[in-house]
Amino acid sequence: MEVMDQVKHHSHSTHRYRLYMLFGFLAALYFILIYLTNPASALLSTHLGADNDRLVSLLLRLPLELIWLVVLLSYLRLDGYVNHLGDNKDGRHFAYIKNGLLALSIGMPALYVLNNLWVLLLQHDVISVSFAGIATTYSQLIVTAIAILLIARGTNGINRLAKGYPLNKLTGVLLFVGIAVGASFCFLVANNVSDPSAAPSINNVWHYLPAWAVIYTLVVPYLFLWTLGVRSIYEFIRYQHFVKGNVYRRALRNLTAGFATVIFLNIALQFITTLSRQSLNLSRLTLFCIAYIIYAIMCLGYILIATGAGHLQKIEEV
Fold first, then answer.
1. Would you give the end-to-end CA distance of the chain in angstroms?
2. Is 306 exposed, middle or buried (0-12, 13-18, 19+ CB in 10 A)?
3. What is residue 124's DSSP assignment?
4. If we measure between CA atoms, which residue out of 56, 40, 55 comes closest to residue 123?
5. How far apart are CA 228 and CA 223, in angstroms?
6. How far apart are CA 294 and CA 10, in angstroms?
7. Is the pLDDT of residue 88 over 70?
8. Best CA proximity match to 295, nearest among 81, 113, 60
9. 158-to-151, 253, 274 alpha-carbon distances in Å
10. Is residue 188 packed enough to be buried (19+ CB in 10 Å), middle (13-18) or exposed (0-12)?
11. Which of 39, 73, 133, 142 is the most buried (most CB within 10 A)?
12. In the chain, what's the furthest Cα-to-Cα distance?
């Protein structure tokens, strides 16, 4: 038994080490791509030369990497709790939730690296604007789909353990929120697709795709994923009411609040970035600042996840 525990601990340590190495690689690659990008695409011009513009761009993006680190650390805390649960019913379901969080923690920096790679290749005429725009949009959809589908599968599993604990009032509120967000998204998409003045850009995928492709390959999948995300929040809350013990419930409350914050703000971020800057009348710097604000608030959600997972692990160890 002691040998098995040592093997398990070694495997877990190796997994954490590889994640840190991958995170460091993505962070360094992101900074390199930002530096190599044409200064004309900098977020803010200092009028003091190309090197200064690059330096400002790097400094503006430094807090983003700190946010990525918080996301990674929250995953590692949840990973520790899931490993402690082992192969019981709760452990198997929480493993899916953990893997969904892993998809977000690695997918987030990977998407930024890919987006800046497309920009760099575009500036050297290696790829077309249409390819860069389509690749940027659909890579974001793929990462979102992987994360939410895994989280939804996990929350569906723990929800089955909580039979007999309906939350009808909350169901109505979440249903209303889902309908309101979906209707607003469809309205903005319709305006965007029908806008002939939208200029071709990496952020304006609607310029390169027919309306039916936009609806069935972007709008419908996003609405489906957002619905799953909202349902996952409901299932988290339902499971929280199901478990016994006030201490355990308080720890789960942090975990639930964290995931609710992350899911809702991911929806908000996708809401903005899926639409072109032209349709929202936002400058590149303004859009970046809005994304920063969303990420900063999202950080609180990840901190709640890490705090809740840490408390749950301590409870299991007692």
1. 19
2. buried
3. T
4. 40
5. 9
6. 37
7. yes
8. 60
9. 11, 15, 31
10. middle
11. 133
12. 68
Spatial CA neighbour of 301 closest among 262, 253, 270: 262
For residue range 167-215, list pLDDT tens digits in order: 556 666 767 777 777 777 777 776 666 555 555 555 556 667 777 788 8
Q: Running DSSP on this structure, what letter comes out for residue 199?
A: P
Per-residue pLDDT for 284 more than 80?
no
Question: Can you give the residue ranges of every domain in the chain?
Answer: 2-317
31, amino acid identity: F
What is the helix (H) or strand (E) element at residue 245, kind and residue range? Answer: none
Q: Residues in the chain, how many?
A: 318
Count CB neighbours of 28 within 10 A.
Answer: 12
Calpha distance 184→170 (Å, rounded): 21
pLDDT in tens, 4-45: 555 555 566 788 889 989 998 998 898 888 778 765 454 444
Helical pair 220-242 and 129-160, crossing angle rounded to 10 deg: 30
Closest CA to 91 of 162, 1, 149, 154: 154
Closest CA to 240 of 249, 251, 229, 228: 249
